[in-house]
Design a protein that fits this description.
Blueprint: E1 2-11, E2 14-20, E3 24-29, H1 36-48, E4 67-76, E5 79-88, E6 94-97, E7 103-104, E8 114-117, H2 123-126, H3 129-143, H4 147-169, H5 175-217, E9 224-229, H6 232-235, H7 261-282, E10 293-298, E11 301-302, H8 309-331, E12 339-343, H9 351-361, E13 366-371, E14 384-389, E15 392-396
Parallel strand pairs: 3-13, 3-14, 8-12, 12-13
Antiparallel strand pairs: 1-2, 1-4, 4-5, 5-6, 6-7, 9-10, 10-11, 14-15
Length: about 400
């Protein structure tokens, strides 16, 4: 799959901009702060309905406007699709496919698939667990858009359950609330089990690609791995009863891969019961996918806190490459290769890592790269050049 045309209206710094693209490598060159990243952010947003730079939609709208529009023409084999996304202030975003009737924004998920590399990726290793959970969920939705509803359902139930628990802290919790909490426990157990089951399967698919990608980017002297840590095992022992947190370094979490959604649902119900007193005291849900961790391991040690700066960058890049390889696996069953976006990444890397990363991605169907100067781009990524200037595109080489 490749992006043939991108049009933005009132998105970030652009009142209006049109960018023609094609297969292969395209490098967008322009001074820092000129708007290159805004173009890449728009493509990534079209693919995931989220930005890699901000957590809310408000900054995406050009200052003083109430609506932004992203329009893209995507080519997959012999078929082309025009997809539009309207980002609205104060109301739900809307999508449109091939100029048809408006649809929910999440109905366009899966049409545009991207893997985006950016300096913000350092948070995947150095940041808190929410960054790694988001990484998993965005990839999950890219592969299977139906999981956008899974995640939305879980977030909705979690919000309701937390509201009830908060009532307990303010002294407004009654016997009636207790019965209502039991009902929400069931809803949250089911939604949480579906999300956990999907994440565990995804981590299994990612793990070999992560190690392979890390070896490609480095001298291969250390293995890279990932372990999913579930809060279920913070309150249950191996028999499903209440227990203290598992010992540090325990691999028992891997047993969860053997459980069905129904079995995981039951484990969550038991976990909620075991942690009920603590949750009522603190007024917050302590068990569930929203508190899980994807632990990244380099050699025998956790990457966070132990990896050098260069190793941290290699791990971040390897996670993104692993995502790309997982998506390529899907292409063999009728999917489509994602668009690779490298947003100002090469300026952050040493010469050796630049060349290795460039050699790996150069053969992708479409690679979009941004850089402040041509010198940042390795020779392996020779391709079309586009000059970005304030407010638009100046021309192409």
């Amino acid at each position: 799959m490749y992006l043939e045309h991108l049009s933005l209206t009132d998105f970030r710094s652009y009142a209006q901009v049109d960018l023609k693209l094609g297969p292969g490598v395209t490098v967008l060159v322009g001074s820092n702060g000129i708007g290159k990243t805004n173009l890449m952010e728009a493509i990534g947003y079209l693919a995931t309905l989220s930005s890699h730079r901000v957590s809310t939609d408000a900054p995406l709208l050009r200052f003083g406007t109430e609506r932004a529009l992203i329009r893209a023409k995507l080519v997959r084999g012999e078929q082309s699709t025009v997809v539009e996304l309207e980002i609205n202030a104060g109301r739900a975003n809307r999508g449109r496919i091939n100029r048809g009737n408006p649809v929910r924004a999440r109905d366009i998920l899966g049409i545009c698939q991207t893997v985006l590399f950016a300096p913000e990726d350092l948070a995947l290793v150095k940041g808190d667990p929410s960054n790694r959970r988001r990484f998993l969920d965005e990839l999950l939705v890219s592969l299977m858009p139906v999981h956008a509803a899974t995640r939305s359902d879980y977030d909705r139930v979690l919000k309701q359950r937390n509201a009830l628990l908060k009532s307990a802290r303010t002294g407004k919790f009654t016997a009636g609330h207790e019965a209502t909490l039991d009902v929400w426990d069931q809803h949250m157990a089911r939604a949480g089990a579906e999300l956990l089951h999907a994440r565990l399967e995804l981590v299994e698919r990612l793990r070999p690609h992560l190690n392979s990608a890390y070896a490609q980017l480095t001298d291969g002297s250390k293995e890279a791995g990932a372990i999913y840590r579930s809060t279920i095992q913070g309150v249950l022992d191996d028999d499903g009863g209440p227990a203290e947190r598992l010992a540090e370094g325990s691999e028992g979490v891997e047993d969860l891969r053997l459980l069905s959604v129904e079995q995981l649902t039951e484990r969550y119900v038991q976990a909620f019961a075991a942690s009920r007193r603590k949750e009522l005291e603190r007024g917050i849900s302590l068990v569930g996918p929203h508190r899980d961790e994807l632990e990244l391991v380099l050699g025998q040690a956790p990457a966070k806190g132990y990896a050098s700066h260069g190793e941290t960058w290699s791990m971040c890049l390897s996670l993104r490459l692993a995502s790309y390889y997982v998506m390529l696996d899907d292409t063999r069953t009728g999917g489509s290769a994602p668009i690779l976006i490298l947003d100002d990444v090469f300026a952050e890397l040493d010469v050796q890592r630049r060349r290795k990363l460039a050699a790996i991605v150069a053969g992708a169907e479409q690679v979009l790269v941004t850089a402040a100067v041509d010198a940042d781009i390795p020779e392996e990524l020779a391709g079309r050049r586009v000059k970005v200037v304030p407010g638009g595109i100046d021309g192409e080489g």
